[in-house]
């Protein structure tokens, strides 16, 4: 895949994000996970912890896909795009996703498929409203990715993608969410659903403790011995 989009802002974000994430993982992550609490379930089945804001770059978060008892939203689109650039360092396990090309007009021959676009709005109380939009969008699979522990991956603003972590795999990533780029967050799906609101749930203390304990154990096991 080409370095999409080919602009200086995205290039600078990538160049700054990698050393920032790797330095935090090396020097701060272990102690930070020992003091975390709460956390939120993302509708796609991973737990989110906000860590802090990196000046000039964006928000730093921890994402963990546990290998048991994930809480997912049973309805709605999963292929989506963000309004910001994203950089991610895989801490443990193998991260998997699919990137998609998209077009507002039918591009002609090829494996393009028509989908319904949905607008995603952030509401008070950690809720999201998902509303179908008029018209049809066309997407096709562009790249399957597998990213191993200690490697980086990036998703530019406006790039449709779908994260595919098997339910029996434990995966954690350290993620940097850049600043808004003027591209609205949205999602697509084959079928058309009516407007719905999803309430994101907070992890129970026992859930958070179990997941973070597992993460700390895996991080300790992956450290080189002296």
UniProtKB/TrEMBL annotation:
This is Cupin domain-containing protein. InterPro entries: RmlC_Cupin_sf (IPR011051). SUPFAM superfamilies: RmlC-like cupins.
């Amino acid at each position: 895949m080409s370095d999409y989009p080919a602009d200086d802002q995205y290039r600078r974000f990538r160049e700054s994000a990698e050393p920032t994430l790797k330095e935090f993982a090396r020097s701060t992550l272990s102690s930070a996970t020992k003091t975390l609490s709460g956390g939120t379930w993302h509708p796609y089945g991973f737990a989110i912890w906000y860590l802090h804001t990196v000046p000039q770059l964006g928000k730093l978060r921890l994402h963990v896909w546990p290998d048991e008892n994930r809480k997912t939203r049973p309805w709605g689109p999963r292929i989506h795009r963000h309004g910001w650039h994203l950089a991610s360092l895989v801490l443990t396990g193998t991260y998997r996703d699919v990137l998609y090309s998209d077009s507002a007009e039918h591009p002609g021959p090829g494996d393009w498929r028509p989908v319904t676009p949905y607008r995603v709005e952030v509401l008070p109380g950690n809720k999201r409203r998902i509303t179908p939009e008029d018209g049809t969008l066309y997407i096709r699979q562009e790249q399957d990715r597998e990213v191993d522990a200690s490697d980086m991956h990036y998703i530019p603003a406006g790039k449709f993608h779908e994260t595919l972590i098997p339910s029996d795999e434990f995966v954690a990533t350290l993620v940097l969410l850049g600043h808004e780029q003027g591209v609205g967050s949205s999602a697509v799906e084959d079928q058309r659903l009516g407007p719905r609101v999803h309430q994101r749930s907070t992890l129970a203390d026992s859930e958070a403790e179990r997941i973070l304990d597992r993460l700390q154990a895996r991080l300790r096991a992956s450290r080189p011995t002296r």
